[in-house]
Amino acid sequence: MAVSVTSILAALTSLTALFTWSSEPLQAKTEPKPTVETLALLRDAARVRDPAVALAKYAAIANKAIQAKDTVGEAKAEFACGQKCEALFKWDDARRWLRKAGQAWSKVPYKPGEADALDEIAGTWYYTGHYHECLDTLRTELDIRHAVADRNAEADTLKNLGDTYFRLGEMQTALDYLNRALAIYRDVKNEAGQVSAIQAMANVHAILGELEKSVKESTWTIEVARRLGLKDAEGDGLSILGVRQLDLGNPREAIKSFEAAYKIKEGLRNERDAAINLGDIGFAHYVLGEHAEALKTYQDVYQRDKRRDDLASMISDLDNIGLNLIKLGRSSEALAPLQEALQLEEQCDDNRSEASTLDNVGLAYSELRNFDKAYIFFGRALALDHTLHLPGSEGFALSRMAHALAANGMPDLAITFGKEAVNVYQGMRQRAKGLGGAAEQTYSTSVAPTYRELADLLIKQGRLVEAEEVMDLLKEQETFAFVRGTKHGFEDTISKLAIEEGWWTKWQELEKKAFRIYTRKDALEQEQAKLAKAGKALQPGKAKELAQLEEDTSKLASGTKSYLEAVRKEVASSGNRLSEEADAKIRNAKSVVARLKELRAKGITAAAVYAIASEDTLHYIIVSPSGAVPVSVPIASDKINKMTAELRQALRDPASDPKKPGKALFDAVLRPALEKLDQTGAKSVMWCLDGTLRYVPLGAVWDGEKYLIQRGDFTIFNPLHLETIMSSDRSPTVAAFAATKGGDGFGPLPGAHDEVKRIVKDKKNSLLGPIPGTLWEDSSFTEKNFKLAIEDQDNSLLHVATHFAIGRDFKSSKMLLGDGKELYLSQIADWGESILGHVDLLCLSACDTAEVIHGGSNAGSEIDSFAGLMMDQGAKAVVATLWPVSDESTPLLVERFYINWIANPELGKGQALRKAQLSLLEGDGSGPSPYQHPFYWGPFILIGNWR
Questions:
Q1: Which residues, in sequence order, are bridge partners of residue 619?
Q2: How far apart are CA 303 and CA 42, in angstroms?
Q3: CA angle at residue 867 from 864 to 872, to 5 degrees?
């Protein structure tokens, strides 16, 4: 396992092994007995704790039994020899003894004994990473279990088949076997078996993106295991829960779960599982960026796995040791463990691990600025990834290759590789549409840097329109991760220019050549090693071929150098050809510029701003009807995150002064963009923000003299829904909802009653607000009435005053209904596509409608994604809040917003909201406003159509 891809990929190879091979053979009622003499010897040997001594005793017993023609005694002794060899990690010897045991049982004959031997043999293949051999053995075992009608044992074998298919990445097949096992366990009322099957299913559901289901399953297994006193199963459940907590962005909680699992496994003297739990702890430290702690943990794990000669685990450990050394700036030290991992991988058929290790070796050489070697290893990793159909790893290797090329002064070629990486991820998203969930967690934090780094390169090369296109794709990707599916009309890939297509084709030819050479060379070297053990040598023809291949590998580096030199010359002679071709490619596209020109034709002068936060630079692309210009601010994303957190804390507390942190953010982050914006003469500005800037209402930032809202309006646009900007609003009719009583962890909202009463005009019910409509409050605010109101085509305005909490995705994002129940976004999405198609504005004046609940490099994506989902359903604009709103001031702000909008429709929603916010900030002129702190007016943001 290599932690370089994603935590969910890590779950595939780092989870506690849940295979259910028994420490003792399964018994049956009709099992034949050995002779009395052999039975006494077997009982005596069973008391020996030292496996090596016990092995010698059992071997002697087997010989005596053979001489005495005690076939049952022979089978039992040989089976015990196989188990002791497993304890000594002598896998080949174990299989030899176990095969002999199976043959002995076949002479009795006793079919369950044969099946027991096959079960243990399958376990040796599984633990050494030979999964296809494991499957073949298990299928034979399954036929026997079914034939003898041993239903518990049959279920165990089905469960083991599911586990093995899981390791091979065939998730649906794994689920099929696990469901068959679970059905039998339930039928025979085997609760322990049910626990093991559901634990395995929890892993599969996590890989398929169904994290909530996985958490529910693992939590259930922990509870049942504790009730039944199944310590081993409890440890397994805790381990699975830890991985899910990692997936959900809670690494500290994950460490607690892993440590609890480790304590259980240590107490049970289960060395293998304890080592895996330690590896999981190391991975959690890696996620937290605590690489020194992660390195120390993995070094400990490696020593444990080495003592057991656990080949697959040793490879994973070495890969992780190398990667953490690279992260600590010790790349030269990283090469030794990574090269050792490559040598071990020649003995194992886990090619996924080899691809990952090759990629990490490439990264080490890249960090050492030995780019010639880096390209060779990246190329080998890419060829293997492509051959094995591992798109997540392939995209990651392409991204690293792009980074190395940029560092080596070849940004144009780096863009080509970056585009290919983005297209690989886009292809993964396209293929995952039918799953109902992401196949891997590459749709969150792991892919976003690739998009941002590509946009960064394009901006630095002056290719701004392509950079916009990349950021549009990132917004689409973030929304897909949020809703686990998408129906946006954007292109699924970013196209290469003609010159880039040529570069990519030539690289692929080099890559294929290298793959052929290394594949054949590795095969001959493995054959040579096996022959050497037997004191033999390769045939002369093969030896000559191997020598030629050695020479060919040395020529690969010179071939790569020639390729790069040719690209350099082509770039040098192309002049502005790349930028010109890029502009021509999408000149006629419905881009932001096209929309702004349409607005200008209607007398509206507007501009748009893309913010792109790369690791060390914040880029702005400022777009006006005349075109796009870049503004780059050299500032690390970590510094921006710190500044936004400090300002956000002050904004959320009316007792704090937000001016100092606001001025700091203005000077360091916003001033350069606003100065360039002033030159466009735009009266309306739309912002497409990135990273943690999405958690800050720009209007609430202090510039040293005033809040930015006093300089102009700040609305948010989603590039996936540019068409909404051109739509016109109808005369609004409102459906207003209020939940005043709270419930299920949510506090009461008494001000919600006053808020909705100020909005709705309904003379029958003595409601004198500015907008005609209907009010549903508390007990009448049910799921049924909410859905009916949404489906009513006359309701162009939906106003919801209740608690709303945005989670990691739409399945965990929910709002409180007036009857105390909860309604999830996923349920609304299931009501039908474009169900909000008639809605001009959805206003959620509630607590935490756009509140961060998780961090990471993709922080803030849930805000864009939430609005994107509502617009997917047809809403033209969304008003959300960035922190819990004031129950006192919100009714006043909302009332003024709607009055401004209705009385002066030419203002548009953006300016109407701004005027309402200014009224709270500046008061009515009779004295200081009690609501001038941004806490009261700042959290409201308008996303989408501001007209």
A1: 612, 632
A2: 33
A3: 115
Asked if residues 192 and 47 have their Cβ atoms less than 8 Å apart, the reply is no
**Secondary structure of residue 624 in the 3-state scheme:** strand
Contact between 482 and 868 (Cβ < 8 Å): yes
Give CA separation, 773 vs 285, 763, 777, 788, in Å: 54, 10, 13, 14
Give the pLDDT score at 129.
81
Name residue 222's beta-bridge partners: none
Cα distance between the two ends of the chain: 52
- Measured CA to CA in angstroms, residue 759 lies from 361, 752, 896, 900 at distances of 63, 11, 9, 12
CA dihedral over 739, 741, 746, 751, signed as positive or negative: positive
Residue 25: pLDDT band (50, 70, 90) is very low
Which residue pairs, CB below 8 angstroms and at least 24 apart, start in 398-403?
398/424, 399/449, 399/450, 399/453, 400/359, 400/362, 400/363, 400/366, 401/362, 401/375, 402/450, 402/453, 402/454, 402/457, 403/366, 403/453
Select from 361, 368, 363, 356 the least CA-distant residue to 402: 363
Q: How far is CA 162 from CA 171, 183, 202, 204, 340, in A?
A: 9, 14, 12, 10, 31
pTM of the prediction? 0.73
Residue 697 structure tokens: 């209402």
pLDDT digits (tens, 9 = 90+) for 699-731: 999 999 999 999 988 899 888 788 888 788 888
> How many Å apart are CA 731 and CA 771, to the nearest integer?
9
- Calpha distance 666→663 (Å, rounded): 5
State CA 724 to chain mean position distance: 30
- Give the confidence band of 480 by pLDDT, cuts at 50, 70, 90: low
Three-state DSSP state, 774? strand
Of the listed ranges 181-185, 358-362, 446-450, 479-483, the one predicted with least confidence: 479-483
Task: Please tell me whether the peptide bond between 732 and the residue prior to it is cis, using omega within 30 degrees of 0.
Answer: no
Strands 606-613, 684-688: pairing kind: parallel
Q: What is the token pair recorded at 656? A: 């704090």
Cα separation, 241 vs 214, in Å, equals 8
- CA atoms within 13 Å, Cβ hemisphere of 739: 27
Give the Cα separation of 726 and 160 in Å (integer).
58
Going by C-beta distance under 8 Å and a sequence separation of 6 or more, which residues neighbour residue 589?
Answer: none
CA distance 87 to 94: 9
Could you report the per-residue pLDDT of 138-158, keeping only the tens digit for each? 999 999 999 999 999 999 999
CA distance 260 to 263: 5
* DSSP assignment letter at 668: I
Spatial distance between the Cα atoms of 518 and 610, rounded to a whole number of angstroms = 45
Going by the DSSP 8-state scheme, the letter that residue 730 receives in this structure is: P
What is the residue whose two structure tokens read 């000149």? 587
Q: Residue length, the chain?
A: 947
- Pairwise CA distance, residues 156 & 195, whole Å: 12
Could you give the angle at which helices 151-167 and 171-187 cross, rounded to 10 degrees?
A: 160
Place of tokens 């220019």: 497
Whether the per-residue pLDDT at 73 is higher than 60: the answer is yes
**Over 80: is that where the pLDDT of 487 sits?**
no
CB contact at 8 A, 304 and 275? yes
Residue 827's CB is within 10 A of a number of other CB atoms, namely: 14
Q: How far apart are CA 405 and CA 571, in angstroms?
A: 14
